[in-house]
Amino acid sequence: MILQVEDLSYKIGSTWILRGVSFNLSRGEFAGIIGPNGAGKTTLIKAIVGDLSDYAGRIKVTGRVGYLPQNPERNRDFPISVREVVAMGLYKERGPFKRFSKSEWNRVDALLKTTGIEELGKRRAGTLSGGEYQRLMLARALVSSPELLILDEPEAGVDEMGKSSFYRLLEKLKNEKNMGILMVSHDIGMVFEACDTIMCINKTLHCHTSADMISPEQLQSAFSSDLDLFIRSRDHFEREHRL
Ligand SMILES: Nc1ncnc2c1ncn2[C@@H]1O[C@H](COP(=O)(O)OP(=O)(O)O)[C@@H](O)[C@H]1O
Ligand SMILES: [Mg+2]
């Protein structure tokens, strides 16, 4: 088990944001988190990556974590190259005040290749398109060779073509590196296609099951406050199961 979340609860003032959330994630498992806006998905991710301290419950991570936050901050004018942004992902383990070694740069270049942006290494990061920038953020999240990869709505700003190749890349990483992947997504169709397990979250964990076992009732209970998203997910479900 690479991640264990046990009875996690969090409240702001007197409002519960998360209540009694428990689940485990194994290496080689690709889990998709779905749920309406404001359901607490980003809050859950923040608790797991250590950006939230005052929660109740237990979180145990066994291994290195790579993290691609929701809407990563982007300064288009900052004079930094794509290669340098990826290399900065190494700061956590080696500190910012040492020159990068040849082997560290090799690691960076290998990842630019893996994520399909090797042609862009010398470009100023601010000039990248939405899809290219998400690949850059993925490369940065991967540079410390994490065993657990966490992504919060990585498809934002990525077009349909870009989306499916992005998900294929995640599946490949899962298989080749035996990584555990936890991904929040609004793209229900893609989540059903790419993920092994699905978690429906709306303050509490409404369901957690393998992607082909989920029932319309389970989706309905999680999405009752977000009808539009629910209808889209139900349409997808009916297509998949030819109801
Ligand atoms: N700093 C904060 N202060 C007050 N409310 C917050 C804060 N951060 C998040 N929330 C609230 O917590 C709820 C869950 O937010 P979030 O985890 O971002 O949801 P999601 O990612 O599922 O859309 C929302 O109702 C949001 O408004
Ligand atoms: Mg969010």
From TrEMBL:
InterPro entries: AAA+_ATPase, ABC_transporter-like_ATP-bd, Metal_Ion_Import_ABC, P-loop_NTPase
Pfam family, one: ABC_tran
Highest taxon above the source species: Bacteria
Keywords, sorted A to Z: ATP-binding, Nucleotide-binding, Transport
A GO term for molecular function: ATP binding
Family assignment from sequence similarity: Belongs to the ABC transporter superfamily.
Protein name per Swiss-Prot or TrEMBL: Putative metal transport system ATP-binding protein TM_0124
Native source species: Mesotoga infera
